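## tool: complex_structure
## caller: assistant
## args:
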Amino acid sequence: MEGSFPASSSSREIADDGWSDVLAAFENGGGELPDQWQALFQPLLNVSARPLMVGQLGQSLDGRIATVTGHSKYINGDSCLAHLHRLRAVCDAVVVGVGTALYDRPRLTVRRVAGRNPARIVIDPRGRLHDWSSLCTGDARCILITGPDARPEVPDNVEVFRLSLAGEGFDPEAIRALLAEQGFRRVLIEGGGATISRFLTNGSLDRLHLLIAPIIIGAGPTGLQLPPIETIDEAVRPRTTIHRLGEEVLIDCDFSGCRPIGGSA
Ligand SMILES: NC(=O)c1ccc[n+]([C@@H]2O[C@H](COP(=O)([O-])OP(=O)(O)OC[C@H]3O[C@@H](n4cnc5c(N)ncnc54)[C@H](OP(=O)(O)O)[C@@H]3O)[C@@H](O)[C@H]2O)c1
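## result:
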């Protein structure tokens, strides 16, 4: 299915375009969204008890999410960046891996659209992030998920939660359970590729908004990095909806009912 998208990239224009009704519906936990927002946001509104986990990745035509130096600002244009901020605005919390926190020094705020800033969460099993100044600005909860033996250096206003490390890291379902306990109902996994890939591999990602920019980076990390499969019939086949955002394309992937990575039918 193909849908169009409101062409605006500015917050104040969006507010006049029914966006305030979207925010009200998410605040109230239900309702019908204005027509132009339904295809993308209605699936995020209807959540069950466990937090809905939605990922986003902005990638080039050749599937890269950054250059070889880690530079990624900005692969996508204004419309996609506004969409990312809308996702933040309808989620209670936004999660990044420590790689993104170190490379990008993100603020993870809602700046390009109207809405409330989500809680900011960093997954950092070894306590590698020392500079929290871009993230902890006092206008939203700030949370570190770290390992049992880490000695993180964090400001007083960072809440620290420890999970046990098993195999390759934290079990994404243990992260989901922790976020549920903290009262979050919709969580945006904003990146990077390694973090989103772990959720997807584990079957812990409900949706992914893949934002494809018409550029070719040529080398650098790819977004999704999953365990190898031998035959194409083992590939993950989400239900997809395609939207155009100016010159870019948003593919909304719904993983409900998908078999595990590499699993059999
Ligand atoms: N284009 C986009 O949409 C986008 C979005 C975000 C970031 N980026 C770019 O992506 C790059 C960073 O991405 P990345 O994939 O290298 O790193 P990342 O996903 O930001 O962080 C990965 C690290 O986070 C920790 N981690 C995440 N999930 C974990 C789990 N389940 N258990 C234990 N540890 C976990 C691990 O830390 P340890 O290494 O300490 O074990 C892991 O190596 C940067 O260049 C950034 O600019 C692009």
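## assistant note: The longest strand covers residues 52-59. The pocket of NAP is lined by residues 57-58, 65-66, 70, 72, 75, 96-100, 103-104, 123, 125-126, 128, 169-170, 172, 190-195, 198, 221 (CB under 6 Å). Handing back to user.
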